């Protein structure tokens, strides 16, 4: 029987042809190769290398017995903690009723696109799942141009050009900063200018601030300060608290968008019902903060900053064009300078580049084509996360507590990243 042509197996046309999430795919491939005995340096999946803070882990243990279904919008105590976190960090008015909890911000983003009937505007390059989610739901995606000279950041002018031809068209703009995949972020002036255009066209602005707490200088600022009435802040536990597998995300809505929040809650009630009870109870400890959380974040930022600067310098010295990261744990190097040498080896796409790099060096990174670029744009995303996060925090807060971190720290705390750079350099030189 030809299953593909059997109507009983008629897969939704919006899903047919979509590959599994690129970041998860590279992680599974890396794990498979490791299981075969190959030494793979995993710079593909953007998973925080740091452990979940001790007090948050203890809170999870204390609440492991919690078994009741919680309210669809989330546990009131957690929603209060998140509202308090927003008031402290952004100095914005926020109440517990403005907060929606979900099993990861990824799920909440999917529900937002289901609940709001509008086009999706995404600056290129962007995280790998924004556009596929829109395609699955059947929404139109408009890629917004950005440029390497401007750190791959959206400008207010380019946003205005997209919106002005149909000024009343419903649209969701996703702004992700510090950025996955570039590690770059926006200045206050840039945010203000974008906010003014978003207000002009009454856009829904989804501000994906999942990496906000890992801004290297601890100076992240939400665009919601400049466009409060139309901005939804998205954050969670995965990137700044090391709890990716816990699957807890949150959206913070302005009062003006309460009907949209309510619509998403209806979808939640008919799909996942509620987010895991023990996880929600434990998350209160994370969002309430405290001196221990502040110290954890301080050392996390110190480590990520020095590692990002080291990797940036090594890649630049190899001949890649790469922007200096300001937050998160990503770099987006462009290898176009090697185009002729690569073509002589029949390597003409970013996908082929990453495949050849993996096969020849064991270094796993992701091609630019997964982030919205045409196949022959010879760039890639590198997640500098393959190191022992617990050990690095202990070292940074111990032996290196009173001194500036440098290459000696990176070599001691992150030897696999040093090895990855050595292998990449040798391979590029051999082309």
From TrEMBL:
GO molecular-function term, one example from the UniProt record? transaminase activity
Q: Could you say which cofactors this protein requires?
A: pyridoxal 5'-phosphate
| Gene3D superfamilies recorded | Aspartate Aminotransferase, domain 1, Type I PLP-dependent aspartate aminotransferase-like (Major domain)
**Pfam families named in the record:** Aminotran_1_2
The record's EC number reads 2.6.1.-
Q: Which GO terms describe its biological process?
A: amino acid metabolic process
Protein origin, superkingdom: Bacteria
Matching entries from InterPro entries are given as: Aminotransferase_I/II_large, AspAT/PAT-like, NHTrfase_class1_PyrdxlP-BS, PyrdxlP-dep_Trfase, PyrdxlP-dep_Trfase_major, PyrdxlP-dep_Trfase_small
Q: Where in the numbering of this chain does the Aminotransferase class I/classII large domain appear? A: 38-376
- Keywords (A to Z) from UniProt: Aminotransferase, Pyridoxal phosphate, Transferase
Q: Does the keyword Transferase apply?
A: yes
By its UniProt entry, which SUPFAM superfamilies does this protein fall under? Answer: PLP-dependent transferases
Enzyme class name: transferase
Please name the PROSITE patterns in this protein's record. Answer: AA_TRANSFER_CLASS_1
- Name the family the entry cites: Belongs to the class-I pyridoxal-phosphate-dependent aminotransferase family.
Q: Please report the name of this protein according to its UniProt entry.
A: Aminotransferase
- Which source organism does the UniProt entry give? Marinobacter adhaerens (strain DSM 23420 / HP15)
Q: Which gene encodes it?
A: aspC
